[in-house]
Amino acid sequence: MTAPPFDDKITLPRFAALRNLVLAIIIVFSVIAGATAFLLHEHVKSATERALNRDRTSADLLSLVLELHLTKITKILATYTRRPTLIQAVKEKNLEITESYLAQLLSEQPEAASVIITDPEGTLWARYPPNPGVVGLNLAHRDWYRGVSSEWKPYISSVYQRIVDEKDPASNVCLPFFDEKGGVVGILASTQRTARLKNTIERVPLGSGIDVAVIDGDGNLVYSSRISYDKRIVPYPFHDSLRREINGNNSRISVSDSVIDGRTRHVTFAVVPDIGWTVLVERDVATFFRSEGAHLVQLAVISALIFLFVAVLLVYLRKQWLTRQTAERLEAAEALRESEEKYRSLFEQSQDAILLTVPDGFILEANRAACEMFGRSAEDIRKIGRAGLVNQDDPRLQPALDERKRMGKAAAEITMVRADGEIFPAEVTSALFTDMDGRQKASMIIRDITERKKAEERIFRQARLLRSINAVFQETFTESSQAEVARICLRLALEMTESVAGFIGEITPDGLFSTTANSNEGFENCNIPVAEGSRMIKNMHIRGIWGQVILQKQPLIVNDPFSFPYRVGLPDGHPPITSFLGSPLTDHDTVIGMIALANRTGGYGDDDRRDLEALSLALVEVMRRKKAEEELRKLNKILEQRVDERTALLEASNRELEAFSYSVSHDLRAPLRSIDGFSAALLEDHGHKLDETGTSYLHRIRAAVTRMGLLIDDLLTLSRLTRAEFNRASVNLSRMMEQLAEARRQEDPESRVDIVIEKGIVVSGDARLLRIAMENLLDNAWKFTSDIEHARIEFGRETVESDEITCFLKDNGIGFDMNYVDKIFDPFHRLHSSADYPGTGIGLATVQRVIHRHGGRIRAEGKPGEGAVFYFTLKQYEKGDYV
Predict the structure, then answer these.
(1) Domain range for 411
(2) pTM to 2 decimals?
(3) For the chain, which has fewer Cβ within 10 Å, the N-terminal or C-terminal residue?
(4) How many domains does the chain have?
(5) E strand or H helix that includes residue 518
(6) Looking at the domain assignment, is residue 660 inside a domain?
């Protein structure tokens, strides 16, 4: 480049007075200073807005990545909470089975620190890796427990300080276990260390000069590239300001950073949906000036030089115009040379490709980055012009050229062509300008965005795959038939891979292949009659292209079916196959079927194969679930049938027992009343005629009749206990025992038994049945302490568990030998003589039957001469127990 020639004609200005010269200099200074300030302000404003918009895009991208990451973890946990074996193990608290599943789950989540299971009340009973020190802890006070138990839905907790292992910040991903009736049987929680979240976040490509932070709903740091948070919970310093802006529906704030000299920081944020976390992208205001500093300095220097130039020109124009004209010419040439050198340095050192062209597409210059990007020399680039570098079939090309012509500049994403013919995406910015000779030219700055597009494509495919797998589980949840499940999965596979046709089938027990689902498009494009086609897709021999998927037990891609060696041809009327993708359905290393897709425009690739493999795994899992559901339905039907049979037998037995009770109550009592009546008449009317032995015999007959009557009463009471209506309610056992003790004292006022009753023992049960049991226990203790000088009976509670209470009745009577403890609750079995201690031997059997009717347990301990104690368990009363 060369400077334009100067005009030799000199025209002197008419400055007659120094005052006019000074005024002119002041005016020039004001105009240049104002224009410079305005340009500086507008440039900084524009650069700031572009940077903040990029920050917003980065925040949204990080929010999406974080959402996908946490959703993936939640879905992995959800698959375990639906496994029947694990659900049953959680219900039974089977630690061995549960730990095996937790170990498997932890292997699928390398980023998780540990996995735990608690019962619905928050008590931890299983953890992997095992840690006995935390088993039994109640975690109901933790945020994650309150979150998941509020609505029994999946919940991701706020950050908290772990109390075990590294004791670093972590967050819990929690899901509840539901049994077949929809009841909650436990909680599965995966502990995610926030330190490991760093890998996920830092895989996302971001611009320079920014800091990234992630905070939870409480404002605590989950991740920060600027603030240390490794071993403690650190609150985000700008949370209060951030919360006000979030409530105001804004997406950025500006705050004063007290950590770095109070400088202003721009914070752009995006909320992670449904979790309550927030992704923040921070930028120091100084970064704007650092990134744009060279341009700002250059603009300021140029403005100063212009002002000095004009001022000097005006000052010396009057006296030294000719001399200054020569000097200015030399200065202009030097400035032009320096400008060219500076331009050339920037032009060659730029990492983006830069082309200098004319509007019609002829290329004047190309920098080194452009040569490397297109794989051509600068000379080749100038020869082929813009048409040889830009993909002329790209529909976005002409609109971009029209916009540049209309607006003077344009920016667009356009595909370019390398020397080897490879087409790649690029971000192109172009602007028109006029050079010093008045000729119009154009600049093109080209940035290769291939890697960025690949990253976006990976994220899109992963999100689409996750949506498809989620749809498989959701849409097949209520379907009962295998065929309908297969149709749903096939539809999703076709949509996911943009295929035209496909089928899903299974291997029959005879080793043949039968199709269970076929695409509608396949049938519509097929000229084979429907009846014939339906017959042909059943019980097929495994062969051809699709057969290789089953025989080789691995996915298969064939984009040129006509040259495939195992091709066997198509039936007459079958639409042509232009491309094929198949994946086996494998259950425990056994191929049970396959899914096949065909005729995708452009053929299939490895990404399509991986997506179909993942969808196949989901389909197999659904098929397992449906098979288990069908087996469960059959088992329930068998169980219901058995229950009906047992119910009928029980009803027949109850009718026989009722008949027996009626017979005992009426047929046996009549003879007893006759024996007792005639014995009383003999004593009254003829007693004086009998000797002492005869009288004794009559008295013994009447006593035996009385005992027989009591025995009949006790037998009837015992038989009715299991058939009596059960009315559950709150029962105050302490008050009941006080009433029974008072009644016993009134019946036997001479007894001096010391009775101690603990207050406030309340249980859930049937008050009438429990009164029978307590009365028999108290009578038993009263009877066997009758010969003790300082008799003592004590009633209280020993332990209180989460849902039951253990009570005891203790006496210091004659006791019993523990060798006979197994027989103490047997009906009619007595450990002591009836002559010494009257009774029928039914009382303790009655007590045992009442406790068992309540679902409790009873046991006895004793020692001869030292008394006995009876322990029994009952359900603890809670609000909500019904009558």
Answers:
(1) 350-448
(2) 0.35
(3) C
(4) 3
(5) strand 513-518
(6) no
